[in-house]
Amino acid sequence: MNPIKAFIATIGSKSDTKTLDVESIYGISINALNGKPIDLSELKGKHILFVNVASKCGFTPQYKTLQKLHEEYSNKIQVIGVPCNQFGGQEPGNAKEIETFCEVNYGVNFLITEKVDVKGKGQHPLYTWLTQKVNNGVKDSSVKWNFQKYLINPEGKLIDYFFSSTSPLSPKIVKHLK
To answer: Model pTM?
Structure first.
C-alpha cells in the first residue's frame, strides 16, 4: 500500500472504539432533563427513537413531527430527545431553558434527556452503543449533525439510523411501527 493510502486508512480507523460492559441498550444509564435516571429497560417491548436535538438548528421544527410521531404511535414507540451542543453551539440552554423551549414552542411531552456529548472523547455511553458495531451488533456510524435519529426495535436491537434530513414521520421509520 502506498504511504498516502496507508495514512488515510489510519485516519479513518476506529481507534476510538470502546466496548461497553453492557449486554444491551437496556443496561445504559442516562438521566432525564430533570436529573432523574431513566430506566431504559422499562421500554422493552416498544421501539425507541433516539434523536440528538437542539433548540437553535435549522432542523429544530422537527420537534413538531417528533411530537406527532410520539402521539400517533405512543403504544408502539418511545421518542427520546437527547440535547447536544456539539454542532454549531445550537443547544446552549440549561435544562430548564430546554424544557421551556420545547413545551412552549412545540408542545413537546415526549422524554428529553440531560444534555450530553454524542461524539468525541466525552461521548455519552448511549451514543457509544448507538454508533459502534462492537456494541450494537449491527453497524458503525457517526453523528453528523443535530436531529440524527437511531431506531431501536422492541427487543433492544439497533434497526438503523437516519440522517437529520429524514422526517420523523418518514416511511423509512414508520414502516417499522405498522
So the answer is: 0.89
